[in-house]
Amino acid sequence: MENSTNVKKEDLLAPTSLINLVLSWSLRDVLNKDLYKNQVKKIPKTFSSVTDYKKSFVPALIEETHADLFSNITAVSQAPTWEIDSVVISKDFELPKDLFYEITLVENDEDSGDSESDEDTEKDEEEKNEPQKGDVIALNDVRPKCIEDLNRPKRFYLIAYVLGPRNTSTDTISILASKPIWTDQNVHKYENKKQPLFAVYLTNLITNVRIWGALNPPEGGNTNIIERVLHANSPDDENCMACFSEGKNSPAPSCILNTISSYNLNDSQEAAVLSCIGMKDCNHQNPVKMIWGPPGTGKTKTVGVLLHALLKMKCRTLTCAPTNIAVLEVTKRLLSLAKYSLGYDTYGLGDIVLFGNGKRMKIYDRKKRRKFAYHKDLRDVFLDCRADALKECFALKSGWRNGLESMISLLDDPKWQYEIYLEKREEEKREEEKRREERREEEKRKEEKRKKKTRKEKKKRKEENNKGVDELKKDDDYPLTFEEFIKETFFSIHKQLKFCMVNLYTHLPTSLLPLDVVKKMMEALNLLQFLETLLRGGRVLNYFQDTGSSVDCLAELSMAEECLHVLRYLQLSLTSSVPDLGNCSITNFCLKNACLVFCTASSSAKLHRTEGSMEFLVIDEAAQLKECESAIPLQLSGLRHAILIGDERQLPALVKSEISDKAEFRRSLFERLVILGHQKHLLNVQYRMHPSISLFPNREFYGKKISDAPNVRGRDYEKRFLQGNMYSSYSFISIAHGKEEFGLGYSPKNMVEAAVVSEIVANLFKQFLVTKKKVSIGVISPYKAQVSAIEERVRKYSKSNSGFTVNVRSVDGFQGGEDDVIIISTVRCNGSGRVGFLSNRQRANVALTRARYCLWILGSAVTLLQSGSVWKKLVLDAKERGCFYDANEDKSLAGAITAALVEFEQLDILLRNDSILFREARWKVYFDNNFKISISRIRNAEICSAVLSLLAKLTSGWRQPHERRNLIVHNGTSSKFLEVYKVDRQLNLVWTVDILKEYSHHIQVMKVWDVVRLSDIQKLAKQLDVVLGSYTADKMHRCKHRCLEGSLVVPMRWPMESTSRPEHDSVWYLSRPLSSLSLRDKPETSAATSR
């Protein structure tokens, strides 16, 4: 695009300008979340007039703008900040409101290379190197670390609106300030010498300003389509009776029908396309058609075929989408179809143009002349690339006109061209000799001023001068020979012509460049290429030397004459058909003459300022576009028909303000028309998901209206990436021991689920290394904090090998995407069933419909079942279908869960009797508070794991051999019961057998007292003397009973009315020697013994 920062002052300073409103807010206003609460009313579903329609969106738009600024300003410490070098009052500056300034930034060292690179990352794209058009910046004397830094005594809250990008010629950025930057009216310029000044990014208003412009347009705008969607309409008939009676409702031309049928669309797709192109000559039906495209139903293919048909019918069509990603996707689809049908190289692509921010789209950074490697296939239709290429083609000295004239002259009279060359050389030689003489005179004058210099320096300088003169003489004394001249000149002009001709037939619209002319261009290029090949081989020189008359040269002479004839034809044809673009706006020319134009809905505001009109508007992902934003393209000049493609049962547009959200500000035109009963064409066959994956969403969200295509029902779609039923095509994997906590900005995360995801991805990667079969994995979570936590754990796998990719994104970020395997982390894990916005049905629909072959859902079944949301239905459905699994059933997942609980100090979960640690336990275990305190203080995860591993073994019935146990030298009561097991060189686990009353029985249980150093055991034993000394003799005897099952010790049970030793009394028991009562006695051979 042209580098311009000119903005009409009257547009900015209108009383109702959104920009002025934002600049009028004080910091207190910005931080007042309820500033517009009472002014925002719910947007109705029907409207009485166009004026009523537009006014209904304005309060919510202002509130959303306010909420966005509030959200960013609360995180100002992390905002991009630039140091300002100077501030100058603009020529349009006028107090009190026209506070226009030009700022210059302090230069930062950055790579300005123009080479093509594959190394660009999302982070690079998001980095803001300088303020952009539409940015709101705060001007501050410090880099802010908190909000209060924006409102300091010497520099009260001052913000500015960036009017345009940096002017490359003056290196300045134009801004409009909220108040004077300095109070002294005699000062016209600020320079950063003593007091620094910073520009701090707060938000970007460009889209909201464009929406504001669409809601407050100048008089005379096109509101024809808006008038037809103000309220409910009667259902459309497929055939307009008025057109039918007038004979206008004729079927599409046979060539168009053949094109459509060649793409093997299903019945629903073909019907949708035919219905839309049937609107072309009708003015009676509702001008809005809707195509309902549920997940995987080939929506993008259908849109591509529709656009290709409109291209062949020469219908000027604008195709919009809410985001750059969506625009790029639909453009690629159309190009893949269009290029397949192109008959003459890239001729015809000039009818297609894509425009937008090339850097964000990762196509072309015009400022740095840098081509990105991501979307090479889109460069031929990208406006900035096209404008730069055509600019070279129409350049005075290097363009197509100069190239044709030069080549014709060379072929027509090569000797004369050589004589001209020699004359120029002589003239240049004379000029150079004159310049050398002037330099010698200058050197003599300088020599006179350098009398103090040494002779050595003079001699050296003289040698250098003589050397330079000798080199010039050598160069001048040897002009090109005739043969060298012919070759070099031909090769150079041929290169120039090839560049120009290819770019002309690629980038000019077919309406200005007839096919016959293009055929001649290609013929000329073929002839020139053949002549160059012969020239490089030393042939064809006879033609140029006019000495060849042998039969061998006749064919070559004839080819040169033919090439000359074709070039002369092109010179006349191109001059008459191709306009001179050297002195006009090439970008406006391209937009005006293109048949298909692609951009975001927001960027379509540019088209309101260009000549020409559109006939059709196609909005892809229309259900994600706020209705007020769709008003930008809906009011384009000449627009007669609009086609909305989307799915209102997937995610709508994002809205930051809860107040605006309650007012239905996020609602799309697509959704509102659905609510009003507008007819929509359903695409009813899905091609993406394995039937076991599509089953639940089809029933829950689409009323079983979607059928599975043959390709997903075939054997090829039965893929297993990991062994085990848990990893079949569809499964719910319950993680009972997760724990939700809050991370980034109150966003919940569940580190146990993150660990399980990481373990699954690691297992998939191991399998990939064995099979070498390509697999793409998508990990989805509703929450940013969880996305960040998982990304950190799986980043190493996504970059390890081509063929194994891992994408971790939020649900919103995955809309429109798909992968072979999808893992969903639902995060929420609590006893009350709170699931937050996870309960949103649209969000659930998107998450559940991204997988091709396998969908594995991770979550707390208990929490989801209590939520009363769609996730409760999903868990019940999984259980009913036999697709419900416990993560603990998989050994590697159980290990990952345990490790995560230890790593993140969630030991309280592990120490419960129902935890995975004790899933094979024979003994119930109870922990003293001292143990819980001690283990929580252990920071070494390996030691913690060793303690827990020892506990798991003990509860399963394992016991150390007698000779490996730690003996206690202590005469107190506790010495009879204490067991001490070594954890490592320093720590020991101290426990006893205890008796618990359960229902009508006494049962043996483990009581874990502490984990302590060996030197602290005596102290602990003395403390336990008091506790254990209070036991009755019967309880002591029960504690000392030992029951074996093979090599394992298992707990014993007694009915409450029985005694532990009917044949002996307590006095006898207590009178036995301490050694005989010791728990360290070797067990007897009987199954149940007294220890």
Automatic annotation (TrEMBL):
- The UniProt regions of compositional bias labelled Acidic residues, in chain numbering, are 109-128
Please report the stretch or stretches of sequence annotated as the DUF6469 domain: 129-216
Domain named DNA2/NAM7 helicase helicase is located at 264-473, 585-658
Q: Molecular function terms in GO for this entry?
A: ATP binding; helicase activity; hydrolase activity
Query: Superkingdom of this entry's organism?
Result: Eukaryota
Query: Which InterPro entries does its entry note?
Result: DNA2/NAM7-like (IPR045055), DNA2/NAM7-like_C (IPR041679), DNA2/NAM7_AAA_11 (IPR041677), DUF6469 (IPR045529), P-loop_NTPase (IPR027417), SF1_C_Upf1 (IPR047187)
The biased composition feature labelled Basic residues covers 447-461
Task: Give the Pfam families listed for this entry.
Answer: AAA_11, AAA_12, DUF6469
Which keywords fit this entry according to its UniProt record?
ATP-binding, Helicase, Hydrolase, Nucleotide-binding
Start and end residues of each DNA2/NAM7 helicase-like C-terminal domain: 666-861
Region span, Disordered: 109-135, 429-466
Q: Which GO terms describe its cellular component?
A: chromosome
Query: Which residues lie in Basic and acidic residues bias regions?
Result: 429-446
Listed PANTHER family: DNA2/NAM7 HELICASE FAMILY, P-LOOP CONTAINING NUCLEOSIDE TRIPHOSPHATE HYDROLASES SUPERFAMILY PROTEIN
This chain's protein is named Helicase ATP-binding domain-containing protein
Task: Tell me which species this is from.
Answer: Carpinus fangiana
